[in-house]
Amino acid sequence: MGRSCFPKCKLAKLMGWLQIILGGLVILVSILSLTKFYSAGFFLRNEDICQHFYTVKDVYGDFDAKALSDRVGEVLNSLEALQAKLESKVQELEKNKGTLDKKLLEEEIVRPLHSANVALRQIRLPKIEEKNNTLKEDPLINFFITEEIRKYITPKENRVGNFNVYGTDKVYNTIGHACVLYKKELEEYMDYDIGSYCDDDWNLAQKLMLNGCDPVPRRRCLTRASKVYQKPYPINESLWRLPDHRNVRWGNYQCRNFECLSSKNPKRGYSKCTGCFEMEKEKLKWVSNSSLAVDFLIRDVLAIKPGEIRIGLDYGIGTGTFAARMREQNVTIVSTAINLGAPFNEMIALRGLIPLYVTLNQRLPFFDNTMDLIHTTGFMDGWIDLLLLDYILYDWDRILRPGGLLWIDNFFCNKKDLDDYMYMFLQLRYKKHKWAISPKSKDEVYLSALLEKPPRAI
Ligand SMILES: *[C@@H]1O[C@H](CO)[C@@H](O)[C@H](O)[C@H]1NC(C)=O
Ligand SMILES: *[C@@H]1O[C@H](CO)[C@@H](O)[C@H](O)[C@H]1NC(C)=O
Ligand SMILES: *[C@@H]1O[C@H](CO)[C@@H](O)[C@H](O)[C@H]1NC(C)=O
Ligand SMILES: *[C@@H]1O[C@H](CO)[C@@H](O)[C@H](O)[C@H]1NC(C)=O
What we know:
Elements: H1 2-39, H2 47-53, H3 56-60, H4 65-95, H5 102-122, H6 147-153, E1 156-157, E2 170-171, H7 183-189, H8 202-210, H9 235-238, H10 279-282, H11 298-304, E3 311-316, H12 321-328, E4 332-336, H13 344-350, E5 354-356, E6 371-377, H14 386-399, E7 400-414, H15 418-426, E8 431-439, E9 444-452
Parallel strand pairs: 3-4, 3-6, 4-5, 6-7
Antiparallel strand pairs: 1-2, 7-9, 8-9
Bound molecules: 2-acetamido-2-deoxy-beta-D-glucopyranose (4 copies).
One 2-acetamido-2-deoxy-beta-D-glucopyranose is lined by residues 132, 134.
């Protein structure tokens, strides 16, 4: 009895201390955050009133900031020591097979303590020196109530006061302006306990992305992962093998494994790129002769610029097969991927290829004149608005290098719209290497083209 009580009693004592300290901390943190937000004018919309009553000097006039900052430092140190002590205690208990619930200790005490520590470190007192009164309040800050969103979009100053070459000393975490239309969803997304596990809510994030709240804010919670994650297959096997289903969290899909995603299954849960998860079918793409003129072969395309095509982008929805084939040709391809009802991103990554999680909303995250090749298939078809297509084409043009290739692969549309789309693709006056049109159905046609970006004089 005595033995088993020993760690318990000690712990009770420890917890008592901890509660007192944490309580004190909470008060301290609240006071500090409050003064911080007052000084930034977050609660005051009228700048004149703000300047009149709450200049930094007034708030801190009879307040020894240096002493407070020293005190915070002291608390930080003692917190850290306490945390170390607690953690070693947990390990000790584990070794001695103590009766204590280790998980509880870890989740209820060590982790919150750690978060409190981090939160305390992030408190910054406003500078005491008289500041140029140009501190501008971001107009969106007052729109959101959730503290974590407000913190996210507040510009963060460079801690050592350095300016970058564009004259800014702040990092601006942005959220797309369309976020204001999805206030409820965004507040739900940002409602979490700092440092704990996030909900399994990538689907909510993707909804925000597709609705223009893009980029989605970063969060300070831990993303969930498969409990039974297996090491991936080696690259000489992974490229053409269905991955281990244990490496995917299936909670937000209709299927529960990769075999279920077969096009033969009517309940597969997705409609774009059906058949993409069948490796026998995928193996034929771009390498085996086809009877259709619109099916170009990788061999023929690369032969146009031998040795010149090294890096590129595959813009569409797929499982990375184009990138896998190009990898075999020593060409590095990044594949765009959205998880529309199936784990496209996970599949591409598990094959050992790079998924790029972007929507149609975004300017591509590549610099001007850098890519040797852009290949696009199966994503933008006859549904796409011409003005949107125009912006996308110009963005592709921006990232393609002079002499780079644009491969439009099996674009399909209604016959009557073909002229419009042809005009769009030809407007940039690229050199035409290949151009083919084949019927798809009675009313629809396929168009494939291989175009080269010309050098530009200016
Ligand atoms: C305050 O800002 C203005 C322009 O924004 C600048 O010209 C001036 O030098 C600044 N003053 C101080 C003291 O930084
Ligand atoms: C893949 O490579 C590993 C060594 O790197 C080798 O042991 C294995 O047999 C290879 N697998 C195949 C299918 O070639
Ligand atoms: C595909 O066609 C080319 C010529 O058009 C030919 O050289 C090649 O052998 C064919 N490949 C297959 C697998 O039939
Ligand atoms: C790719 O690179 C490897 C190593 O440099 C080389 O052995 C192989 O022949 C190359 N493959 C192609 C298709 O160029």
